[in-house]
């Protein structure tokens, strides 16, 4: 059979590829046009690499890995890079926008001229007239009905001083506002008025304008850029002060004088936020304490839930039949209840002096943790709840693991005279530790940023006496950063810097600890590999 | 096979993205009358403002939504710039400076005639950097409430207070307790000995000049420490417990704000209200808080908001409705103040204003309150009082 070779550019695949590339470029263009440069770049890189992986033979090796890599890049790497970037700016509630967008915002500012014209909406049946008064001058509009959308704007003519008609009801005034409120009004003299409230029209003038010819400073320098503004009201020139991130009036030599104009804009500040952290003891001391507690919390709740889960799993396995099953069911219950209900229940139960659990503890051991005021008690309680929430998970996995352990080990250990405690320590822990290691790693990572536990339980209280911005003794790094970023101050840049610094430190320590754990001959991987 | 599937999948992905982006570019049509949204901070009564709003809706046909969202103070700066904030925010005046700095509040151009209708102190408390923001509603100041069954004649100075403490202790009652950890209640004692928050000239406050290291200020801390050492006061005292003790007639006296007045009248026994006692002939100096209605700078209906406030809220009827649900203290609107001037509790509050000091409205006041809340926690420590205040002052200024 004879086949005619198709033209290379008319194949099905070529068509699809062409459409894909066009779509890619269009989307890229849209993103660039809407000034989302970062997203445009990410989109370009992702889509080009996707085409390479799925369309070109040399890239096919990565076709299973690509989705994971793409997700990591989008949802882990990108936010991380953003955080690092924000930490080098002054991004905060008073510096929210870029310089250009602040200029745009300022150019939209207006001020109200001196003369305010009082207006009245006069009504005569269905017909309305607008009457304006300023000192002894009065103006009257043509008659109009407010049935359909306005077909023409209102024209004013002098006169009407002797026209007395009832004023419109509020409902009609609201209707007038809706229909004519946005339309400018022209006086016979030519000046244009805008409605400013329910009583007045006035001249509304732009507060700032861009320079049209440039500004000659006294030192001979010519300033002519798109960020120098002229204040129409005070007749000052304004320029952005890149040190402070605010617009300020300048004098003849270009020096910044006068008050800062709000709002500020975002400027790049390099390592200034980091300098602030290290320069202020009220910042770095609490930060170190928070980091220490975060690490302690993660480690202790990991070890606690591991040991408790394993122990309980082992114990319930001793009881065969339905009894063992019932025990396991009860012990797994904490896992079945949504964690935030558990946390809030514990909060109520442990409330000093009024909580049921606190009262019980007081009767039994004459001690109830005063976690509202004592840092150590609060930490202890938090660790307890964290272990309570964490052990059922470990227990479930340990159960599966323990069932598969060969019985011979235990028998031979028992024959060699090893008691149950030593069997547990020398056999059960090492044999289950390795298969559970990935789970434990996940649990450790989870506890490092167990934000909701602390936030729901006590919001990090009690407060450290020497910290500013406020920090709590039981705050994890994430809670601390959250309270800086979203408290009254809303200093996002500082919060980002602390996050970056804290994550680096925590990451290093956690990595080191994990390496060290891996090398331990009794528990680690090498012994049983 | 996989190649084809991959290409098709990618195509679907691209189409989806294009769809999402194109819909987000869709133009919003201009809406028919939007509701006027009012947020209240949680000290105010939604019911009262709703009742006023109902009258407004009846005559204007504009629907009004009155809400008191949780974390309103934190939400307002985040929501307002995106157009999701309220048109009107009712709150106390001390957050004014920060919000004005962030460009969240619309300034009010008072006409001389309308300004003359408000108590000057109230309207000046809303002045920041030569601009007025918002309309004042009520002026609040601490007073001393006492149970007339337990205290025959209320103490006017601390000697008499100590006398009552002795008498009442003997009978098994408590005399006066307040939540020590709250700056609003405890700072008057530091202020009595000469401390102050920020220096001011007229109604303009200076963020760089604090009054915590004034000569007498540390004696105020000593004074509180002595009370703690005598077991008169406890750091654990919280407002709910204090109110409970007072209502069960276990506690004879408490420091109250106008928003507690209605509760005090419902207690079933006779409660009197008087000015704060003096210490060593110097009066306790309470903070003055002014409640106010602000207009959101980002609101599309600032004119309607202003109309509502001027003609429905700050009127005799409007304020009477507010006052009925939660007492305003000294009303800031003079015609209504004249109407309630015969109320002895309003008179007490009005008289207390002379010795009280206005809470500064500059942005730094947030930092000041943060730092002061740590000062009270250090009362039981063995740091010297001077050092505590000195460190606090440094932290605010740094």
Can you identify the CATH class of the largest domain in chain B?
Alpha Beta
The span between the termini of chain A is 60 Å
Give the overall shape of chain A: elongated
Assembly level: heterodimer
Helix coverage percent of chain A: 40-55%
Low-confidence stretches of chain B: 1-8, 22-31
Strand content of chain B: 15-25%
- Sheet with the most strands of chain A? 8 strands, antiparallel
3D architecture notes:
The complex is a heterodimer of chains A (529) and B (398). With 529 residues, chain A is α+β, with helices and mostly antiparallel strands. Chain A has three domains: 79 residues, Up-down Bundle (Methane Monooxygenase Hydroxylase, Chain G, domain 1), CATH 1.20.58; 97 residues, Periplasmic binding protein-like II (Beta Barrel), CATH 2.40.430; 253 residues, MetI-like fold (Orthogonal Bundle). Chain A contains 16 helices and 17 strands. In chain A, strands 2, 3, 4, 5, 6, 7, 8 and 9 form an eight-stranded antiparallel beta sheet that branches. Chain A has a five-stranded antiparallel beta sheet with strand order 10-13-14-15-16, covered by helices on one side. A two-stranded parallel sheet of chain A has the order 1-17. In chain A, a hairpin with a 4-residue loop joins strand 14 and strand 15. Chain A is elongated, with a radius of gyration of 36 Å. The C terminus of chain A is likely disordered. Helix content of chain B is 44%, strand content 19%. In chain B, helix 2 runs antiparallel to helix 13. Chain B has 17 helices and 17 strands. By secondary structure, chain B is an alpha/beta fold. In chain B, the strands form five sheets. In chain B, strands 1, 2, 3, 6, 15, 16 and 17 form a seven-stranded mixed beta sheet that branches. Chain B folds into two domains: 171 residues, 3-Layer(aba) Sandwich (D-Maltodextrin-Binding Protein, domain 2); 184 residues, D-Maltodextrin-Binding Protein, domain 2, CATH 3.40.190. Classes of the chains: A alpha+beta (529), B alpha/beta (398). At the A-B interface, helix 1, helix 2 and helix 5 of A face helix 1, helix 3, helix 4, helix 12 and helix 16 of B.
């Amino acid at each position: 059979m004879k086949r005619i070779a198709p033209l290379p550019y008319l194949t099905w695949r070529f068509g699809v590829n062409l459409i894909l590339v066009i779509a890619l470029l269009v989307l890229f263009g849209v993103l660039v046009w809407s000034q989302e440069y970062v997203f445009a770049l990410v989109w370009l890189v992702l889509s080009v690499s996707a085409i390479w992986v799925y369309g070109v033979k040399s890239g096919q090796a990565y076709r299973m890995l690509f989705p994971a890599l793409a997700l990591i890049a989008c949802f882990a790497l990108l936010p991380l890079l953003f955080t690092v970037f924000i930490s080098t700016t002054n991004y905060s509630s008073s510096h929210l926008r870029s310089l250009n967008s602040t200029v745009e915002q300022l150019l939209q500012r207006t001020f109200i001229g001196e003369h305010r014209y009082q207006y009245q909406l006069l009504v005569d049946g269905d017909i309305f007239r607008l009457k304006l008064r300023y000192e002894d001058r009065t103006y009257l509009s043509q008659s109009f009905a407010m049935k359909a959308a306005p077909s023409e704007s209102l024209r004013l003519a002098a006169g009407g001083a002797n026209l007395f008609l009832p004023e419109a009801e509020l409902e009609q005034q609201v209707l007038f506002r809706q229909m004519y409120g946005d339309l400018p009004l022209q006086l016979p003299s030519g000046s244009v008025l805008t409605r400013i409230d329910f009583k007045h029209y006035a001249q509304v003038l732009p507060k700032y304008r861009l320079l049209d010819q440039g500004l000659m400073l006294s030192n001979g320098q010519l300033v002519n850029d798109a960020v120098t503004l002229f204040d129409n009201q005070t007749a000052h020139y304004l320029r952005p002060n890149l040190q402070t991130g605010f617009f300020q009036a300048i004098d003849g030599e270009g020096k910044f004088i006068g008050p800062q104009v709000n709002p500020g804009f975002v400027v790049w500040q390099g390592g200034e936020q980091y300098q602030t952290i290290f320069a202020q003891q009220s910042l770095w001391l609490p930060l170190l304490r928070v980091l220490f507690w975060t690490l302690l919390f993660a480690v202790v709740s990991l070890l606690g839930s591991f040991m408790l889960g394993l122990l309980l799993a082992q114990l319930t396995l001793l009881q065969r039949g339905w009894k063992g099953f019932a025990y396991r069911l009860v012990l797994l219950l904490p896992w079945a209840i949504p964690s935030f209900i558990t946390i809030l229940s514990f909060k109520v139960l442990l409330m000093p002096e009024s909580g049921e659990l606190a009262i019980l503890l007081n009767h039994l051991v004459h001690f109830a943790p005063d976690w509202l005021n004592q840092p150590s008690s609060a930490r202890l309680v938090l660790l307890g709840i964290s272990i309570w929430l964490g052990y059922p998970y470990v227990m479930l996995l340990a159960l599966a693991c323990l069932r598969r352990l060969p019985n011979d080990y235990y028998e031979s250990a028992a024959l060699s005279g090893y008691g149950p405690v030593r069997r547990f320590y020398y056999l059960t822990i090492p044999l289950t530790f390795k298969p559970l290691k990935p789970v434990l790693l996940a649990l450790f990572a989870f506890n490092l940023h167990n934000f909701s536990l602390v936030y729901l339980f006590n919001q990090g209280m009690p407060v450290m006496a020497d910290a500013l911005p406020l920090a709590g003794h039981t705050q994890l790094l994430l809670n601390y950063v959250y309270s800086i970023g979203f408290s009254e101050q809303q200093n996002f840049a500082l919060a980002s810097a602390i996050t970056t610094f804290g994550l680096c430190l925590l990451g290093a320590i956690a990595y080191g600890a994990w390496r060290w754990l891996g090398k331990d001959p009794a528990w680690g991987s090498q012994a049983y590999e | 096979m996989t190649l084809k599937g991959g290409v098709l999948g990618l195509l679907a992905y691209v189409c989806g993205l294009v769809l999402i982006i194109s819909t987000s570019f869709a133009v919003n049509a201009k809406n028919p009358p939007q509701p006027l949204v009012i947020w209240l901070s949680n000290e105010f009564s939604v019911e009262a403002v709703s009742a006023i709003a109902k009258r407004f809706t009846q005559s204007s046909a504009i629907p009004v939504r009155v809400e008191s969202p949780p974390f309103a103070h934190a939400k307002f700066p985040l929501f307002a710039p995106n157009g999701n904030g309220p048109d009107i925010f009712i709150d106390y005046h001390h957050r004014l400076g920060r919000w004005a700095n962030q460009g969240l509040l619309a300034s009010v151009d008072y006409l001389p005639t309308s300004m003359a209708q408000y108590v000057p102190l109230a309207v000046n408390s809303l002045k920041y950097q030569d601009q007025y923001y918002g309309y004042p509603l009520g002026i609040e100041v601490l007073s001393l409430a006492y149970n007339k069954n337990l205290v025959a004649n209320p103490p006017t100075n601390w000697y008499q207070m100590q006398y009552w403490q002795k008498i009442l202790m003997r009978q098994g009652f408590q005399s006066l307790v307040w939540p020590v950890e709250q700056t609003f209640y405890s700072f008057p004692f530091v202020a009595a000995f000469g401390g102050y928050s920020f220096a001011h000239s007229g109604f303009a406050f200076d963020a760089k000049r604090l009054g915590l290291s004034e000569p007498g200020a540390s004696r105020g801390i000593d004074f509180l420490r002595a009370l703690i050492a005598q077991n008169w006061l406890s750091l654990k005292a919280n407002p709910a417990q204090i109110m409970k003790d007072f209502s069960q007639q276990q506690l004879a006296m408490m420091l109250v704000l106008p928003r507690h007045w209605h509760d005090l009248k419902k207690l079933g026994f006779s409660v009197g209200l008087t000015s704060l006692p003096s210490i060593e002939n110097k009066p306790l100096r309470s903070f003055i808080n002014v409640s106010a209605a602000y207009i959101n700078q980002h609101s599309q209906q600032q004119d309607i908001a202003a109309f509502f406030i001027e003609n429905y809220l700050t009127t005799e009827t409007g304020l009477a409705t507010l006052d009925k649900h939660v007492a305003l203290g000294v009303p800031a609107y003079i015609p209504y103040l004249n109407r309630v001037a015969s109320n002895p509790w309003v008179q007490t509050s009005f008289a207390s204003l002379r010795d009280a000091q206005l809470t500064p409205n500059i942005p730094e006041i947030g930092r000041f309150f943060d730092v002061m809340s740590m000062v009270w926690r250090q009362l039981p420590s063995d740091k010297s009082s001077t050092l505590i205040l000195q460190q606090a002052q440094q932290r605010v200024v740094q």
